[in-house]
Amino acid sequence: MKVAIIGAGPAGLACAVECERLGIIPDVFERDNTVGWIWPSVTVSLNIFDLDMGDQSNVTYKKFGIDLLPLTKTNSFTLKSPNSEIKVEGNLGYYYVRGKDPNSIENQLLRKLEKTPIHYNSPADYKELAKKYDYVVVATGIETTAKELGIWEQKGLVHMHGGMALGKFSPGNSFLYFNTEYAGTGYARLTPYNSTQAIVKIYNFNCEESNIDSLFTDFLEKEKLTHLQFFYKITPPMFSIGKVKKFQVDNVLLIGRAAGFTDRLVGVGASFAIASGVYAARAIIKDKDYNSLVKPLQQHVENISAFRDAMANIDNDGFDKVISILGTPGIKQVIYNTGIDFTDMAGAVLKNINKLLGK
Question: How far apart are CA 270 and CA 2, in angstroms?
């Protein structure tokens, strides 16, 4: 069996790892000269967003046989709006490094491969590969293929700006900021990389691309972060958020963000990417239906994303009220520290409400 994988990110590499385990050596095509984003980053993996409630690191190992070394545990995070603030503490999840760092998710997965060739500096066309390989797995991290196949459902555009800042930080403790004046209905974040470096970015869902730099400046001023020194900033092209109508067309399978496996609330996606990559390999080699395997995963992502859809017209007063409610004694403990699957239960209700409202 000949399998081609386009993209050596978490989804593509996880797919390759599982292919090897099942006795098939795929070809991986990567357009860069190494794995990982060109800029260092940190992603948070929260237990409340996991499809199987519990410690995400343990779940990933038990279900998919992939053990990843986290940067640190997520001990607390603070949610802030203009006039409300709550701090959540506990065993909330993990932070993982992304990019070209030796301990990034990408490089950890790469080291698990024993025989799979990575063809670097090799942009690949799925249509051409589909003629030469039995299966082609698209893990490009963008929706281009899904659009060409006519299966992409656009949900919005996101403008991102920020970078790595120098300062004094507490590893394991991050901040999420909600303020329509600089983030629209999106958000900003401060995620420590270590005690002296942190990722600081805004993700705006409804601004003009030319305004993102000035909005970032507003964010730093309003949140009293102007003392931070940045040793790099990036403004990548705006990117689409959405989902696909189906995950396989003929012998082409989509995984990771290319298949819409990134929640539209706060952009969680690495664990979903890994899961979809493993499922794709199992579907191909064990002759299972890929669409059926990943359907529960998509439903879970859509339940999380329902919160984003409900925020389409929220203002700062609305953010204040939401955060105040989330900070109410009892509610906060139920959501984060009881093991109750609040995300899917509340998200499923919201999803139906959003449908009735036409969102």
Answer: 26
Distance from C-alpha of 176 to C-alpha of 157, rounded to nearest angstrom: 20
Residue length of the chain: 359
Q: Are 188 and 201 in contact (CB under 8 A)?
A: yes
**Which pair of structure tokens corresponds to residue 79?**
């949610």
Strand residue runs (E) in 49-193:
72-80, 85-98, 118-119, 135-138, 152-166, 173-177, 187-192
pLDDT band at 342 (very low <50, low <70, confident <90, very high): very low
73 to each of 124, 134, 139, 147, how far by Cα in Å? 37, 41, 28, 37
Residue 333, CA distances (Å) to 48, 55, 153, 188 in order: 12, 17, 35, 24
Q: Which residues pair with 97 in a beta bridge?
A: 42
* 224-259 b/e (C-beta count within 10 Å ≥ 16 → b): ebeebeeeeeeeeeebbbbbbeebbbebbbbbbbbb
The C-alpha atoms of residue 70 and residue 292 are separated, in whole angstroms, by: 30
116-143 pLDDT, tens digit each = 999 999 999 999 999 999 999 999 999 9
Residues 6 or more apart in contact with residue 77 via CB below 8 angstroms: 44, 87, 88, 92, 173, 174, 175, 176
Closest CA to 63 of 296, 340, 249, 334: 296
